[in-house]
Amino acid sequence: MKKIGIIGAMEEEIRLLKAEMVNAEPIEYHGFVFYQGVLNEQEVVLVQSGIGKVNASVSVVLLVEHFSVDLIINTGSAGGLAPELKVGDLVIADGLIHHDVNLLAFGYEKGQMAGMPTIYQPDETKSQLAYQLANQKGQPVTIGLIASGDQFISDSQQIKKIIQAFPEVKAVEMESAAIAQAAYVLSTPFIIIRSISDKADESASMSFDEFILLAGRQSAELVLDILAHFD
């Protein structure tokens, strides 16, 4: 049986998963609390990484190097940029990019970190499984590009800049591109599942506070479905 690492930035994003775990053993390691146990008959290690790209990257390294996980699943909330997305809709990443990285002066593409791909590719088979399971349950779901940066997007002008740079982006948040980069460096497959908590505009902070529990639960429920369908 493979061991699966699950990352959520906030307590609201891992609450359901922690409650559903069997034989959950809390393990403190380098300032993080990892929960090792069983979810839907899968061996998992769950961690609340904290917000932001550095925290997310460190959690990936610890999951892979210390807990020897074989797959990373990132679950949580995001701000919706695509006009068709509504609060509670699911977004499955088919690519991840840093929207706050700019090394154009050195010949790299917008969003590309030195020596790294411009876009990080999740595990296609498992991402498609997530998309199909959401569809089968009638949940509104989109598959597409997610952009990450170390800022909470809550301004229409910021949205315009991100869309101008990355026209295909569906949603923005603060961790998944870093998780993808760390997983890429460590040759570990990953998938990213997000639920929309806000529209990343001037109402974003109020919407986020109101809907983070809904978004966290929607995303976590899909994670549970995916685990139930793994071999």
From TrEMBL:
It catalyses: S-methyl-5'-thioadenosine + H2O = 5-(methylsulfanyl)-D-ribose + adenine; S-adenosyl-L-homocysteine + H2O = S-(5-deoxy-D-ribos-5-yl)-L-homocysteine + adenine; 5'-deoxyadenosine + H2O = 5-deoxy-D-ribose + adenine. The active site is at 13 (proton acceptor), 198 (proton donor). Pathway: Amino-acid biosynthesis; L-methionine biosynthesis via salvage pathway; S-methyl-5-thio-alpha-D-ribose 1-phosphate from S-methyl-5'-thioadenosine (hydrolase route): step 1/2. One of its GO terms (biological process) is nucleoside catabolic process. Its EC number is 3.2.2.9. Catalyzes the irreversible cleavage of the glycosidic bond in both 5'-methylthioadenosine (MTA) and S-adenosylhomocysteine (SAH/AdoHcy) to adenine and the corresponding thioribose, 5'-methylthioribose and S-ribosylhomocysteine, respectively. Also cleaves 5'-deoxyadenosine, a toxic by-product of radical S-adenosylmethionine (SAM) enzymes, into 5-deoxyribose and adenine. This is 5'-methylthioadenosine/S-adenosylhomocysteine nucleosidase. It comes from Facklamia miroungae. The lineage of its organism: Bacteria, Bacillati, Bacillota, Bacilli, Lactobacillales.
